[in-house]
Amino acid sequence: MTTTVVQTTGLSKSYGPTRALRDVSLSIERGEVFGYLGPNGAGKTTTLRLLMGMIHPSAGSAVVLGLDAWRDSVKVHRLVGYLSGEPALYDRLTGRQHISFVSRLRGRGGDRKAGGLADRLHLDLQTRARSLSKGNRQKLALLLALMSAPQLLILDEPTSGLDPIVQKEVLALLAEHTAGGGSVLLSSHLLAEVQQVADRIGVIRSGELIAVESLEALRGRSLHHVSALFSSAVAAASFARLPGVRDLQVTDHSLTCSAPQSALDALLKQVAQHDVVDFRCAEADLEETFLAYYGTGDHHAG
Ligand SMILES: Nc1ncnc2c1ncn2[C@@H]1O[C@H](COP(=O)(O)OP(=O)(O)OP(=O)(O)O)[C@@H](O)[C@H]1O
């Protein structure tokens, strides 16, 4: 049995002259959380809508749970828990009525699970959708995506508008989902959020998938801030030629730079060639490492 739940091949979408998505090939495996990261307008929503068969690709294809996303979109909708970026709810229906309606539509129950989810998300199911706040609408839409325990969740910025406590609960729910063998495609523009649950991240920029990397690998490349003070002036050249050293600044008696873990040994040995008065080395947080590699618009393959 195949373990691939999403497979796109050369997936592309243009809106008139706008090339929203270009030649994206990626796969997501069973049991993994794939974080899909990119700034506003990068093409995240377009990708997710293509996977749900809501729009037709200009080129390439998308296979979701073994089904062609466009031709078999009705089946895909039944099988996938999808949260759109702008959830559509029925203003006159309460949360409870939405649950009954959606579970009948999917024909896979989920009503019982929904009560537990509502408790965990602190959501009142008696209120009509039109009276719900933005955050509570988001919670209800998420609950509807999660309640029938689909094999695959495709979530467009699921924690947007939620307070930090509920955000944490949502991430916990996603972790439980994958522990049970489910998979998640989670779009976001925040690494800080995605890194808490994702196994791998894909970085999209201007419609192109510029990197796919495991969180573990990203952590392995985690940058360190290094600073040293010497008793006499040092030359920048001997440090500048060390592989991996970035943002090097040597001014007279002092040095500052950033370097991935893999470059530290050589850097330290070079520093030790001189008479050291003070030395500091601190690991940067992952967000900073991520921005250093992917934040500039440079194309680094992972
Ligand atoms: N229906 C449409 N018609 C024309 N252009 C569109 C349409 N939908 C998206 N676009 C354009 O395609 C590009 C990708 O948009 P998309 O919504 O996929 O980005 P995104 O990464 O989801 O952004 P955000 O984080 O702001 O939601 C943008 O340039 C956007 O303006």
Automatic annotation (TrEMBL):
UniProt KW rRNA processing keyword: no
Keywords: Antibiotic resistance, ATP-binding, Nucleotide-binding, Transport
Localisation: Cell membrane
Residues covered by the ABC transporter domain: 6-231
GO molecular function, a single term: ATP binding
Annotated membrane topology: Peripheral membrane protein
Pfam families: ABC_tran
Domain of life: Bacteria
Sequence similarity: Belongs to the ABC transporter superfamily.
Protein name: ABC-2 type transport system ATP-binding protein
Organism: Microlunatus panaciterrae
